[in-house]
Amino acid sequence: KAAVAADSENCSEIGKDILRKNGSAVDAAIAALLCTSIMNPQCMGIGGGVIFTVMDSSGKVKIINSRETVPSNVTSDLLKSCPNTTEWTVEWPQGGLFIWHNANIYNVLPEKDSLFLTTKVNTSHALVTRHYGMKNTHNVISKIQRANDECFSFISLSLSFRKLYLDKNGNLLKTGDTVKFEKLADTLEMIANEGPDVFYNGTIAKNLISDIQNEGGNLTLEDLASYQANVTDAWNISLGDYKILILNIMKGYKMNSEPKTTDEKILFYHRYIEALKFANELKPNISDPNFSSDKMAKKLTQDSFADSLRSLISSDKTRDPGINLYLDSIGTTHVSVLAEDGSAVSVTSSINDEFGSRVLSPSTGIILNNQLSDFCGRANRTSHGERPPSNMAPSVLKSPSKTLVIGGSGSETIPPAVASALMNHLWFGKSLKEAIITPVVLVDSKSEVKPEPKLEKDVVDGLEALGHKIAKFYNTVNAVEKAGSCISAWSDERKKGKAAGY
């Protein structure tokens, strides 16, 4: 009757329970997100941003953009602090320089009544105070222990953050130990009891701003109080035309079945990689439409534009577009929800890099984001109120007989991973599970091709022979689909996820 696909079985189950209690798809999505902020705190939390694609039971769709916005007194030369994107190791300046708005989702969505809101938060409060093995938090501790790891350093965490992962004797927690987010539990309970205003204007706001400024950030109470989510109509794109740039380029090759032989697979992935390169090159031209033109974004859906790009793709050699300037980041979570009444939510949330800014607000327990780094390589300046560009792709696909709720996590990997799942499911007829677990290929900002390790060696060798540079990566896709009276749901096993339904 209904299903939820989140990053962990616990969070999918919590979302499912909310639906069973007659909560809406939005209620279930919020519950699953709050749960994920505990189970996978390195990915998201209320200290980050979120984009909702919400379809009501009549089929009308709205986009709720609660991404972070640039503070009023942002440093004018802030983007000069962007790291050298040609280097593999990315280290941000310590302190709160890249900490922005905390996009609390409560004031964005209609509250059915206080009971549902309290239920959601109390459920998450139980998760916060309950004991969970660290194996359920995506190997957080193992990442912390690798102090010289290229993407994470325990030494670079704020003091309050380090204390969270130390036992009462000051020893670093081991895999299998427990961690409790007690301050965050208090914060969520306060929001439940006093409403969202306490987050933007009340006690939480004052404590949060004080903590941010103590870490060197320049967010103010005025910034927090004036924050507004952006609610718009969704772009309505014909399912039959697949007007998504990557798919729009690929559909011109008229593939009606999955490539079978090694040569067919090499040619398919080669063309797909070239399409991904074009998508990467166009990223710097797309930004917040409230601060720039959306002409280029709309151009991406046009057949004629895709045709012109496809004509530049050779079948026997690669086209080297050079190195792009934007940063590759690694955070994010996605939740897909389909309720009994046919309503659906596809929502992606992030604190950006792993553990965001690596600063935890000691008085609120909130992990703070470093989202403004998304401007690096994709903008020359920032403006007060501007939202950073995003790879988020929370989508709902609707036809007379089917509804598909899909999205992904993994920052730069989201568009190619979602496109891959859609091609495999819609064009090649694979089940939702098979479409998602099929090996994915990514092209990063350095134009290096990153096939999953399980992609056949002969195919990888063939791609190298065509001139593609090969590296490695990690992504996830979570989806729910209703076809006729049957509902299927799948959470990506790459992140040890598991869907739930009834």
From TrEMBL:
GO molecular function terms listed in the Swiss-Prot or TrEMBL record: glutathione hydrolase activity; leukotriene-C(4) hydrolase
Coiled coil: none
GO BP term, example: leukotriene D4 biosynthetic process
Active site: 332 (nucleophile)
Pfam family, one: G_glu_transpept
GO cellular component: plasma membrane
Binding, L-glutamate: 67, 350-352, 374, 411
Annotated family: Belongs to the gamma-glutamyltransferase family.
Name of this protein: Gamma-glutamyltransferase 5a
Species of the source: Haplochromis burtoni
Lineage: Eukaryota, Metazoa, Chordata, Craniata, Vertebrata
